[in-house]
């Protein structure tokens, strides 16, 4: 299972690298066209929004996989092991609840995106695309977060209550 997860993570990180490159190129192109040529390229804005939305949600999925998502752990090292176990269980339950909300919102956004089209005119397309390419990032990233979170919960109980099994 671990080699498969590592391949998935590597694929997601490669896609994120491509989105980061695309974001950098479109931002640079937009600035150059606006300030040097006094002309705007509206299509660059679409690619920027697409890149940012996918970077955020795919990066969040990787953070969940690595158990590096936002947690309040300032007092964890001072807690007795039983209270630390309870705290970790509460964190996993709350995280699961938040991820389920994200999945529901992502699904609704995906459905709404099917009926809405891009407002910025894309000159090289004959018809405006729907907004599913933005909103699919919410659902896709949240779904990956759920998968990685459930695997972390499994690992948590196998390693007797320590996140990832490597914290003491």
From TrEMBL:
Look up keyword Transmembrane and say if it applies: yes
Residues covered by the Tripartite ATP-independent periplasmic transporters DctQ component domain:
25-153
Q: Which family does it belong to?
A: Belongs to the TRAP transporter small permease family.
Tell me which PANTHER family the record gives: 2,3-DIKETO-L-GULONATE TRAP TRANSPORTER SMALL PERMEASE PROTEIN YIAM
Q: Which GO terms describe its biological process?
A: C4-dicarboxylate transport
Bilayer topology reads: Multi-pass membrane protein
Q: Lineage of the source organism?
A: Bacteria, Bacillati, Bacillota, Bacilli, Bacillales
InterPro entries recorded: DctQ, TRAP_DctQ
Q: Which GO terms describe its molecular function?
A: transmembrane transporter activity
Q: What is its main location?
A: membrane
Q: Where in the cell is it found?
A: Cell inner membrane
Top-rank taxon: Bacteria
Q: What is this protein called?
A: TRAP transporter small permease
Which GO CC annotations does the UniProt entry carry? plasma membrane
The transmembrane residues are 12-34, 85-110, 130-151
- Assigned keywords, A-Z: Cell inner membrane, Cell membrane, Membrane, Transmembrane, Transmembrane helix, Transport
